[in-house]
Amino acid sequence: DTGVSQNPRHKITKRGQNVTFRCDPISEHNRLYWYRQTLGQGPEFLTYFQNEAQLEKSRLLSDRFSAERPKGSFSTLEIQRTEQGDSAMYLCASRPGTMNTGELFFGEGSRLTVL
Amino acid sequence: GENVEQHPSTLSVQEGDSAVIKCTYSDSASNYFPWYKQELGKRPQLIIDIRSNVGEKKDQRIAVTLNKTAKHFSLHITETQPEDSAVYFCAASLNQAGTALIFGKGTTLSVSS
Question: Nearest-CA residue of chain B relative to A102?
Fold first, then answer.
């Protein structure tokens, strides 16, 4: 098992363009999370999936953000009409469905720069 | 929703000293409190966690204490070493399906030799 995989690792785009990030969780993990992290801040929760169901979404999440996990395996996070304020590291994390294990396993992240 | 405050934002200690980082949370229903360490350019990784039915937990040089009445918990690192230098994040959640882990803003710990 290679852990949580994210790509692309870096994305530079112009304001107004759409971008999509992909996350492949650890294979037996049915819970998947997206976080955003800016410099000097803690990870900020965006959304959460259990299998293919999106169970929770941050109220801070703009309508320009959408996430999917169509088959309960990999997930995508799309940002439409990007703005400079969207520049951040986008982290994906997964964890098993068992109640006794609370640990989140993070990927290396996808760094977005909006020019 | 849950809100987690973390202090201090930066902490500098000499090698061998102890370091303490404190967090408060707002949702009295939260029952799971992990601590993550993030080295520069790396992903956050769990170092220790505690559940609300326990007041203290130790793992070698690190320990976490929890005061549910006051809604605060702390990370204690003893005999600090240069490799302890990193950003530390506390977090809180209801450890059940459909509940996100909410993080504090982090503490940058610098251990000088």
Answer: B95
Query: pLDDT value at position B98?
Result: 53
Q: Among partner residues A40, A99, A106, which is closest to B95 by beta-carbon distance? A: A99
Q: Give the pair of three-digit tokens for residue B106.
A: 């982090």
B85 at the A interface (CB within 8 A)?
no
Contact A56, B100 (CB under 8 A): yes
Q: Which amino acid is at A21?
A: F
Q: What are phi and psi of A94, to 5 degrees?
A: -135, 160
Question: Which of B8, B30, B40, B29 has the alpha carbon at shortest distance from B105?
Answer: B8
Confidence label for B96 from pLDDT (cuts 50, 70 and 90): low
CA A14 vs. chain centroid, Å, equals 20
Does residue B6 contact residue B22 with C-beta atoms inside 8 Å?
yes
